Amino acid sequence: MTTVITIPQIISKEIVPNLIFPDAEVLNSPDAIVNRRTELERALALGNLEHSKIIIIFEDNESVKQVETTVWGLTDKRVILKQNAFIPIQRVHIVKL
After folding, report:
1. 9-96 topology per CATH
2. Beta strands 92-96; 54-59: pairing state
3. From CA 38, how far away is CA 9, in angstroms rounded?
4. pLDDT of residue 4
5. Where are the domains of the chain?
6. CA Rg, the chain, in Å?
7. Which of 83, 80, 84 is nearest to 40 (CA)?
8. Are strands 78-80 and 54-59 parallel, antiparallel or unpaired?
9. Please, which residues have CB within 8 angstroms of residue 31's CB and are 6 or more apart in sequence?
10. Strand, coil or helix: what is 71?
11. How many Å apart are CA 51 and CA 48, to the nearest integer?
């Protein structure tokens, strides 16, 4: 099996509302999906308590992207950022705290 490493495009959080997100899940492993949720919950706690910025690597309909931001909220389906921006959870590859 060949692993393809994609270097994410770094974007500002202000660009996120303009992106188009497919419905498909980007992770293949159930364990990775559970781990992603745990990391997002930690990111939310850090954002609310310390206003700490984290890095989210995600995928829209064009490519893998990276944004440094504070997580302000978390629903069952979305990571909520400032200024009405959100990223669907199923499109998140990595959360770096």
Report:
1. SH3 type barrels. (2.30.30)
2. antiparallel
3. 24
4. 61
5. 9-96
6. 13
7. 80
8. unpaired
9. none
10. coil
11. 6
Q: Say how many CA atoms lie within 13 Å of 51 toward its Cβ.
A: 1
Query: Which pLDDT belongs to residue 82?
Result: 84
Tokens 């984290």 belong to residue: 54
Averaged pLDDT, groups of 10, the chain, 97 residues long: 74 96 97 97 92 94 96 96 92 96
Helix (H, G, I), strand (E, B) or coil at 19: coil
CA–CA separation, 31 and 94 (whole Å): 13
59 within 8 A of 49, measured Cβ to Cβ:
no
Which structure tokens are listed for 19? 């992106």
Contact 95, 56 (CB under 8 A): yes
Instruction: Report angle CA 86, 92, 95 to the nearest 5 degrees.
Output: 100
| pLDDT confidence of residue 5 | 63
